[in-house]
Amino acid sequence: MRTLQRLGSLTAVVMLGAVLVVVAGQRQPPTFTPEQEARLQIREVKDGLYVIPGFDGNMSGGNVAVRVTDAGVIIVDDKYLYSYDFIAAQVRSVTDQPIRYVLNTHHHFDHAGSNADFMQNAEVIAHKNARANIVRNDQTGAPRVVFSDETAVFLGGVEVQARHVGRGHTNGDAVIYFPDLGAVHTGDLFIWGQRLDGSTLAPFWDFGNGGSAAEWPATLDKLLALDFDTVIPGHGPILTKDEVRTFRRNLQTVLDRVQGQIEAGATRDNIASRIDTNDLGWPLAPVRLQDVYDELTAAR
Ligand SMILES: [Zn+2]
């Protein structure tokens, strides 16, 4: 009896601890080194366009684009649930204008996490599938305004477009286009380089939220048809159109290799052991390659 009681209270303490850790994980920003902190400060990309850098989905979140006009600020994505104060302070360091609009590239918690805070004073806009994913995944901050193919915000003489160019990372991805600057924010349809901890980023087709590896290259072709020279990826440094072309080529290479192995008799269980992506610089987990196998075999 005594032992059981003690076991019971021990279990309660352990469970309480787990809940606190989970809540802390969502509510508290990680501790950064001074070098990491310096890398995360807002910087100018082009005249009137800034980025608050983000290099991963677990520490620094997604890149936040900041378009400043003389009638207010439009931002793209808003990192984590706890990121409102940080983003607001970063924006205040370059302009006195209020944040009027937030455009979401997709629903993931490292890109749309602080929607609810921004919606107190700004309008958040996302693709209709991104909103549906926010609702289905029980995230806060479901946008009041959605679009299907494309929409635009006109503010202070500046136009910012949000375009859904197809499935890829999810079924609700939007690329945000700054036509007067020749710049885009791609969301996670295009990511590049190393996480803050030094590990390498690779594309993630989120099948649970309608993503598609097979359709992703054609989606990038529509992005590449836009006129731009400067790219803010979902995560990573500021890049050019050439890196998007490289990323698209590598994606197609993965698809071609999986297709080739399927035709050579590979099974779901051995597909990952038959595919090497080291030459592409992408560490793809076995389950990612099994996802591609599933999608390509289902489509036959
Ligand atoms: Zn994402």
Q: Please, what is the oligomeric state?
A: single chain
Shape: globular
Share of helical residues: 25-40%
Output the CATH class name of one domain.
Alpha Beta
Distance between the termini: 61 Å
Largest sheet: 7 strands, mixed
Q: What fraction strand?
A: 15-25%
Distinct small molecules: zinc ion
Q: What is the assigned CATH homologous superfamily of one domain? A: Ribonuclease Z/Hydroxyacylglutathione hydrolase-like
Number of helices: 8
Q: How confident is the prediction overall: mean pLDDT?
A: 92
Rg result: 21 Å
CATH topology title of one domain: Metallo-beta-lactamase, Chain A
CATH architecture of one domain: 4-Layer Sandwich
Strand order of the largest sheet: 1-2-3-4-5-6-7
Give the low-pLDDT segments: 1-25
Q: What's the β-strand tally?
A: 12
Structural class: alpha/beta
Order of helices and strands: HHEEEEHEHEHEEEEEHEHH
In short:
The chain is an alpha/beta fold.
Q: Could you walk me through the main structural features you see in this protein, from its secondary elements to its overall organization?
A:
There is one protein chain. With 300 residues, the chain is α/β, with parallel strands linked by helices. The protein has a domain of 208 residues: Ribonuclease Z/Hydroxyacylglutathione hydrolase-like (Metallo-beta-lactamase, Chain A, 4-Layer Sandwich). The protein is 33% helix and 18% strand. The protein has 8 helices and 12 strands. The protein has a 7-stranded mixed beta sheet. The chain has a 5-stranded mixed beta sheet with strand order 8-9-10-11-12, with no helix packed on it. β4, α3 and β5 form a beta-alpha-beta unit. α6 runs antiparallel to α7 and α7 packs across α8. The radius of gyration is 21 Å and the shape is globular. It starts with a helix and ends with a helix. The N terminus is likely disordered. The site of zinc ion has 5 residues, from loops.
